[in-house]
């Protein structure tokens, strides 16, 4: 087994018995997981080795959060302690954590009824509200911070709005106040997002940052940005340059195939859309708070019809909450043809707003920002043409079609989140 963990030295630190079997769980890009069976039971062994997510204070923060959430009844799988009470075992300079094995399966939105979609939205809302209770604002120190403020423990919102132009829909019409209001325009610094883990069963994913630079991420088509990038949307000038570079790579690829043909079509299509909507760049995110950071089908285990555990908290951080809700919906409820199941989105969003105490205007602004992210996002093509990594190719047809459909149906998508 490649990268076999030092089971003897590890298990000597736990009251978990002796190892009987240890199998990789779909190798991650940055961190690795193993299904471990011992004389005392079954466990999930996680090897934290990505420098950006394996800092001891970051792992401790994740573990502390899941322990506190579990005490509130949120379905999570907190780590088991080593003999001295810590939750991280360090062997040979590498950090490991042992979790109980959670039996369950992943469920996509197509497998959920309307009622279950509501329960999903309510679950994410409970996660956000519970994190607000158990993660004091002071603990944001050391986590990525934003310039838009932190939603404080009492529920007060300290978001800083920026002056600027009135929002309009992608079609150019003035957006109705309180419903389709986009983030107001203004200038802000732009930085790149950081890398994170791959999780069990999920294809490789990389979000696009504000500069159009893709980096590894953890879930299927998260399109996520970290807190350093929430103060400004992707720069269209950088995206135009990236499109030109990718088109050149497509032309040079030999022998040309059907993927090249679709890539060229989507690149030209996206360039035309971006030229049309370049003025809709959102400069600021909404109110922020602690979020899971990577909420998608492969990080949620179901047992029967009920969620059994939310897993993989590596991207826990202080970020715009409503944007996580929108990104998650765009993953759970995307159809193969690249459309969203809007009735299910509506059921999900209504429950999320209720349990997270989120306003329709927050969701509308988040829809605009996530739409803009997708409009500027080319991580799948970068992996294919720059890295020669084709693992995400099966996702490309639906993902590349989604932003086109979303642009055309912008008002309908927004209505589904705010109605």
Q: Care to describe what's here?
A:
This protein folds into 2 domains: 7-100, 2-Layer Sandwich (Phosphorylase Kinase, domain 1), CATH 3.30.200.20; 109-418, no CATH class. 37% of the residues lie in helices and 11% in strands. It has 11 helices and 9 strands. The strands form 3 sheets. Strands 1-2-3-5-4 form a 5-stranded antiparallel beta sheet. A two-stranded antiparallel ribbon has the order 6-9. β1 (19-24) and β2 (32-38) form a beta hairpin. α4 runs antiparallel to α5, α7 (342-356) crosses α11 (410-418) and α8 packs antiparallel against α11. The longest helix is centred in the N-terminal third of the chain and has 21 residues, at 114-134. The chain starts with 6 loop residues before the first helix and ends with a helix.
N-to-C CA distance: 51 Å
SS summary, helix count: 11
Helix and strand content put the structural class at alpha+beta
Strand order, biggest sheet?
1-2-3-5-4
Low-confidence stretches: 144-230
Give the helix proportion (percent range): 25-40%
Elements, N to C (H/E): HEEEHEEHHHEEEEHHHHHH
Q: If you compute it from the alpha carbons, what radius of gyration comes out, rounded to the nearest whole angstrom?
A: 21 Å
- Residue-averaged pLDDT, rounded? 80
Main sheet makeup: 5 strands, antiparallel
Shape: globular
Count every beta strand, where a strand is a DSSP E run of 2 or more residues: 9
Number of domains: 2
Into which percentage range does the β-strand content fall?
Answer: 5-15%
Q: So what's the oligomer here?
A: single chain
